[in-house]
Design goal:
Order of helices and strands: HEEEEEEEEEHEEEEEEEEEEEE
CATH topology of the largest domain: Immunoglobulin-like
Number of helices: 2
Strand order of the largest sheet: 2-9-8-5
Radius of gyration: 28 Å
CATH class of the largest domain: Mainly Beta
Strand content: over 45%
Keywords: Signal
InterPro entries: Big_2 (IPR003343), Invasin/intimin_cell_adhesion (IPR008964)
Distance between the termini: 64 Å
Protein name: Ig domain-containing protein
Helix content: 10-25%
Pfam family, one: Big_2
C-alpha cells in the first residue's frame, strides 16, 4: 500500500512539473500578425508567453528592418517579420505605404457628378493607397453669380480602393420648396482616417434586386467583429443616366447579423415614380 501511495505522489509531482510548461507553450504569440506602416514609422512587436531568447528577422531589409522586435518601415512594399523562439517561428506580415499626403489623396480621388436640378449626385472612387475621411461641400449660385445655398456630405471611413455615392441637396426656401440655381461648385477636403477606428468593409455583403416600386437589399455582417456604423447607398439609372439616389444606415453591428432594407424608387417633380431600369449599390463605409 505504501509503495502504491509513493508511486502516486511521484506521478502527481511529475505532472505538476510538466503542466506549466505545456500551458506556457500554448500561449506564445506575437502581439500583431499583420501590420500597416507609413515609410519612416516604427512599431514594436512583442512575443508574449515565453522567457526564451527571441531571434528576429525580416524577409526584405529594403522594405522593413527589425531590431529586438522594433520594426522600421524603410520603403513601400511588403515584408514578413519572423520571431523565432524554441525553434518555433511566429510571423507578422508588414505592408509599408507612403506617408499620407492630402494633395496626393485629392489627386487620386475620382468623382463623377450628376446635376439633377435639385441637387447633385456624386459617385466617388478612392484610388489612393490610404483610407481617408472625406468631406464634400457644394455651393450653389444664381444667374448673377451670387451664392444662394450650400450643402455638405461626409464619408468618415473611405477605404482605399472603394467607391461610394453621396447626394448634395440643392437650395430650398423656408417652405422647403426647391430654389432654382444656375451653377454649382464642389470642393473636397480629405484627411487620413483616424487609427482609432477599425474598418469592417470587407465583411459587409449586400444582395439586392428590384421589388415592387423599390429595391430590396439584404445586408449581412459576415465577419467576426462588430460593425458599429454601416451606410448603404443606391444610385438609380434610366437609359444609363443617373436619375436618383437614396441611402440608409444598416443595423448589422453584431457579427453574423442581417438586415433587410427597401429603397423607394425616385420620383419626379409631380411625385410620380420614375421608371428606372437599373441601380447600383454602394457600401459607403462600415467601421467601429
Amino acid at each position: 500500500m505504501k509503495k502504491i501511495l509513493s508511486f502516486l505522489l511521484v506521478f502527481v509531482f511529475c505532472l505538476s512539473l510538466i503542466a506549466p510548461s505545456t500551458a506556457s507553450a500554448a500561449t506564445i504569440k506575437l502581439n500583431k500578425t499583420s501590420l500597416s506602416l507609413n515609410v519612416g514609422s516604427t512599431y514594436t512587436l512583442k512575443l508574449t508567453g515565453t522567457k526564451s531568447t527571441v531571434k528576429w528577422s525580416t524577409s526584405d531589409k529594403k522594405i522593413a528592418t527589425v531590431t529586438n522586435g522594433k520594426v522600421k518601415a524603410v520603403s513601400t512594399g511588403k515584408a514578413t517579420i519572423t520571431a523565432t523562439a524554441n525553434k518555433k517561428k511566429y510571423t507578422c506580415k508588414v505592408t509599408v505605404k507612403k506617408a499620407f499626403n492630402s494633395k496626393d489623396a485629392l489627386k487620386n480621388l475620382v468623382a463623377s457628378e450628376t446635376d439633377l436640378g435639385n441637387g447633385v449626385i456624386v459617385i466617388l472612387e478612392n484610388k489612393y493607397s490610404h483610407d481617408i475621411r472625406l468631406e464634400a461641400t457644394c455651393v450653389y449660385y444664381d444667374e448673377s453669380g451670387d451664392m444662394i445655398g450650400k450643402s455638405s456630405a461626409d464619408n468618415y471611413y473611405f477605404n482605399a480602393g472603394n467607391s461610394c455615392a453621396i447626394y448634395l441637396y440643392g437650395p430650398y426656401d423656408g417652405n422647403f420648396n426647391d430654389v432654382p440655381y444656375s451653377n454649382y461648385k464642389i470642393t473636397y477636403k480629405v484627411e487620413e482616417t483616424s487609427s482609432y477606428y477599425t474598418s469592417n468593409l470587407k465583411d459587409i455583403k449586400v444582395e439586392a434586386n428590384f421589388g415592387v416600386d423599390n429595391v430590396m437589399a439584404e445586408v449581412t455582417n459576415t465577419g467576426n467583429k462588430e460593425a458599429e456604423f454601416t451606410v448603404i447607398s443606391v444610385v438609380f439609372y434610366k437609359n444609363n443616366n443617373v436619375v436618383g439616389y437614396s441611402y440608409t444606415y444598416a443595423d448589422v453591428k453584431e457579427p453574423g447579423s442581417t438586415e433587410y432594407i427597401d429603397f423607394s424608387l425616385p420620383r419626379d417633380d409631380n411625385f410620380d415614380i420614375i421608371p428606372v431600369d437599373d441601380f447600383e449599390i454602394f457600401v459607403n463605409y462600415s467601421y467601429k
